[in-house]
Each structure stands twice: as structure tokens, then as C-alpha cells.
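Quiz preparation item.
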């Protein structure tokens, strides 16, 4: 199978279902950022060890492929793509709650620092927020399944708590932000 088709050489691409749109279309930006998010989670997976369950990170990558498939589909496409479930968001909520049970109360803003894997977790969180903003923007133009918006919102919360949990599990002091006075 050839990787290149030359069909996109003029700046357009095909959605699942056959519609062609410009590569600068917000839909392409949204699912491209989901892909970037997934890649950053792959980097994070290479950093973590027994301090978290790597299964959850793989599960996140699987769900992001699902979201990417949904977003890469033309709005009127009849093609069957995987779907997101409320249980996917609930899994994130349960993981957040479980980690929070062990974490000290957060009393200040924290800086994305402390170790390479903590900082990478914060990078992943930031990319997730950007993806969420793009999907919100797309939703203003073409309705998107609200489960995607819920999932991305909860995922960024999960990633913030995960960064804190990684620090806690590795006995790395969180770096508080202390604004100048």
C-alpha cells in the first residue's frame, strides 16, 4: 500500500465518508490536535513506571483514537466508526477520585516542574486543553457529540491530578507558584 496519494498536494484532505475539506479546516485542526495529544501520551507512557497504572494511559490512547475517528468523519457520513460511552468519562472520574484520596490538599497553584515525567504530564494537559478548545470551536459550526466535550474536559482534569500523583508517588516536591508582591 502506498502511503502517499498526492491528493492532498493542493491543501485539501478527505474525511471519512469522502468529503474533502481544506487542511486548515477547524475539523482537521481538532483531530490533528487529538493525534498530537495521543503522541504526547505515548511519550508520557515511556516515562512512567509502577507509580501509575500504564493500562490507563493506553486506554486513554485508545479513546483518543476513537475521538479522532469521530472527528475525522464527515457530518453526514454513513461509515461506522467507534463510539465514546459515558463509562469512558466515568473511568476518568473514578481515577481522579482514587488519586485525590492520597494527595495532600492543593493550597497554591503549582508550576509544571519537578521531573521530566511530571513536566510531560503537564504538556499533555495543555495539549488536551487546546484540543478541547478546537472541538468547542468546531461544535459551534457543526454539532459534535457532547460526550467528546465531556471526555476532553475530564481528561485534562485527570492529567492535572496525574501530574500531582506522579510527584507524590515519587516523593518529588511540587513546585508552588509564588507570585511577586
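Solution:
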Amino acid at each position: 500500500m502506498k502511503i502517499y496519494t498526492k491528493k492532498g498536494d493542493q491543501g485539501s484532505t478527505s474525511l471519512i465518508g469522502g468529503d474533502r475539506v481544506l487542511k486548515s479546516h477547524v475539523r482537521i485542526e481538532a483531530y490533528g490536535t487529538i493525534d498530537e495529544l495521543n503522541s504526547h501520551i505515548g511519550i508520557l507512557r515511556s516515562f512512567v513506571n509502577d507509580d501509575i497504572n500504564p493500562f490507563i494511559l493506553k486506554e486513554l490512547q485508545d479513546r483518543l483514537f476513537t475521538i479522532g475517528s469521530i472527528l475525522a468523519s464527515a457530518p453526514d457520513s454513513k461509515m461506522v466508526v467507534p463510539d465514546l460511552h459515558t463509562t469512558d468519562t466515568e473511568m476518568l472520574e473514578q481515577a481522579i477520585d482514587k488519586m485525590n484520596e492520597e494527595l495532600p490538599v492543593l493550597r497554591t497553584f503549582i508550576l509544571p516542574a519537578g521531573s521530566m515525567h511530571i513536566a510531560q504530564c503537564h504538556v499533555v494537559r495543555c495539549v488536551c486543553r487546546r484540543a478541547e478548545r478546537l472541538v468547542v470551536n468546531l461544535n459551534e459550526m457543526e454539532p459534535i457529540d457532547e460526550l467528546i466535550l465531556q471526555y476532553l474536559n475530564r481528561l485534562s482534569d485527570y492529567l492535572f491530578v496525574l501530574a500531582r500523583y506522579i510527584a507524590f508517588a515519587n516523593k518529588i516536591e511540587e513546585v508552588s507558584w509564588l507570585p511577586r508582591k
